What we know:
The chain is built from 2 helices and 5 strands. By secondary structure, it is α+β, with helices and mostly antiparallel strands. The mean pLDDT is 96.
Amino acid sequence: MKNYIITHNVIDKEEPRKRTAEETKDYPYYFELYDDDENLYARGYSNDDLTEKLFEPLDDWMFDYGCVGIKYRDRKTNKMEWN
């Protein structure tokens, strides 16, 4: 099982989807994936924003879409931060 879900594939112009109640509980940490020009490619949620597992979405999307950056919402400031 992956430690994240994608809820909005921006680059393929897919419609965003809401998380189920179970997904909201299991994947509480919001993230965004970007290319090297800082264009947003995808939005999603992860079950980890502290360990190296937080890079799993980037690892997967790097090869398929060329994403090179990931932002997570900071728990204290609620602002999006580069990781």
